[in-house]
Amino acid sequence: MDLRSVVESLSLVNRTQVSTTHCTMIYQGYGHPFVLVFEDSKITERCEFATYVNLDLDPDNYGFDLNQEEILLEGIIKADVLYDALKDLKDINTEEIFIYASTRDKTNNVKENVLAIVAKSEMGISTFNLPNDRSILEKLHIKSSEKVDVSCYNGILFCLVTRAMKLSSKCKFKRDESLLSINMLSTYGNDIPKDYYGTVFEFKLLQQMSDWLGTIEDYMKDHSHNQSGPQHIVQVHNQGEHFEELEQDDDDDGVAIDVPVFL
C-alpha cells in the first residue's frame, strides 16, 4: 500500500485530537483493504487503503536476512545515549559512519568494553566514545579472535535511524559479514496499559567498503581508552595522514566526543 497515505491520515488525527484516541488496525488478507479505525470520545473515523502486489519483490528473498550462524558483533546499549552521540551528525554532512568495538584485555586479563562511533565528513573525522558502564552498555560481544570489530555504513542512511532512536529506551545491534540490524524498543505513548511491553523498530543497513577501515582501526586501538567526558579534538585532512591532536576538553558529560575543529 502507499505509505504516504497512511502517514497523512495518522498526522491528521494527531493534529485534531482533543482526547485520547484509540487506533484499531484491520486486514483480512489478500485482496482486502488495510483499514485504520480511529476512536475518541466524540467521533469514530474509518480509513481504508487499497493494497496491491509488487511483482518486482520476492517476499521470500528480500536479501535482508542476517546470517544468524555468523554474527560478528552483537550488543545492547541505552538508546538515549546513542541518540545523543548521533543526533548532530546530519548537520555536519557525514559521508561515512564507522562502528568500532573492542573487548580486548586491558591489564591483568581484565576485559575492557569499548564502543565508538566514528563519523567522516569532508572536513575531518569526529569520534564519539560511548560510556562502557554496565548500566549503559549492557552487552558487547565480538566473534573475532582479535576482539576488535570495525564496519562502515552510509552516513545519510544511518542518520535516518535517529528519529526512531529518540523514542526508544534500548537499542540492540548485531551484524554479519554484510548487514547491520538495529532493533529499538519503544514504550513511548500516553495511557499505556500495564501489560504493554513496547514496540520494536527494526532497521537493516548494508555495510559498505571504505579505504578508511584500516586507518580507523589503527587509530582507535591507540586512542579508545574509555574515560568520562570528551578526550581529544582531532582532524584528518587526507587518507594516510596521521591524526593531529589539537585540543583537550575536560568537560564531563558522560560521552567522550572528538569533533573536528571547524565545529
Automatic annotation (TrEMBL):
GO cellular component: checkpoint clamp complex
Compartmental location: Nucleus
Any one GO biological process: DNA repair
Organism of origin: Cyberlindnera jadinii (strain ATCC 18201 / CBS 1600 / BCRC 20928 / JCM 3617 / NBRC 0987 / NRRL Y-1542)
Keywords: DNA damage, DNA repair, Nucleus
Keyword Nucleus: yes
Highest taxon, organism lineage: Eukaryota
Family as reported in the entry's similarity comment: Belongs to the rad1 family.
Entries under Pfam families matching the protein: Rad1
Name the record gives this protein: Uncharacterized protein
